[in-house]
Amino acid sequence: MSSAGKVIKCKAAVLWGLKQPFSIEEVEVAPPKACEVRIKILATGICRTDEHAISGAMTTKFPVIVGHEATGVVESIGEGVTSVKPGDKVIPLFLPQCGKCSSCINPNGNLCVKADVTGKGVLSDGTTRFTCKGKPVYHFMNTSTFSEYTVVDESSVTKIDANAPPEKVCLIGCGFSTGYGAAMKTAKVTPGSTCAVFGLGGVGLSVIMGCKSAGASRIIGIDLNKSKFEKAKAVGATECISPKDYTKPISEVLSEMTDNSVGYTFEVVGRLETMIDALASCHLSYGTSVVVGAPPSSKMLTYDPMLLFTGRTWKGCVFGGWKSKDDVPKLVSDFLAKKFDLDQLITHVLHFKDINEGFELLSQGKSIRSVILM
Predict the structure, then answer these.
(1) Does the reported pTM lie above 0.90?
(2) Which contiguous run of DSSP H or E holds residue 267?
(3) Which domain holds residue 253?
(4) 94 inside domain
(5) Does the keyword Cytoplasm apply (predicted)?
(6) Residue 120 forms part of a structural domain
(7) Contacting residues for 19 by C-beta, under 8 A, at least 6 apart
């Protein structure tokens, strides 16, 4: 019996307020309106950005269903949807691609105007498709994947190869693509170059994988936590260092280590001080530094403009610079063609009921990526 056009009751992990644990609740998911898609979620990753919603580091309305890195199957579509159909395997997109705004039209842009960067928590018509205990529940980053079913705008979903394993390619929905693209697409790392990666979490490791794929000859991983070094080397770092082991600035350490030849640096921590360290660490004349880690909201950065005047390039990067609807299916195909290995990033696979455990692993630094099976 088809569920199309009907309200679906299902389980979702609801956040009722700031700094509260997830509560597994029965929610009602309304059918998709025009230009919307209802998706049955198969697997979803736990990303640091979701934790930012819990802690208040990211503006969010409560109650909310977070989660934004997932794989699913289209359950039903609203009027006017043409890019997917029921039964298609898909990845929801926290960064939409409407195809019409100035960013989407420009070949170098990807920050679509439909992206919910201010935490509105609603779909295009200004309303939500979730209710729980008679109350509306807000959406998160256009996706809300910590629910057995979710509704997204057509611009926030893309069809992928039906053979793709959902528990692996869900990482292409955020963490992997963000890091890999920072090296491959935003920085455009060149063969034989030297790279330095600040922060060796899941996204930092994905940056290393991108640098390796681009042909970098030396990739230096930097983190205060030395327990991360073994994994970093396994995915492609040629060496790893901790700033704790030096009394001089890390930029000087890197310059001496490399005979002043660091062409590319990546800040994947999201700390203002580390952003300046990364900028100072790339070559003063031809170096490129990319800000990958999401900066703290409402904070200002002070730096010496001479760092730029000498010739450095300082770039930002959202979702690795990829155009989501166009590039995510290509990245899934590259994974199926074994151009990169996502297994190295997945440390835990959990059931939906254990979602709070997944966030505990994240906060304790015990996981790289935990994947929730729905």
Answers:
(1) yes
(2) strand 262-267
(3) 176-320
(4) no
(5) yes
(6) no
(7) 54, 55, 56
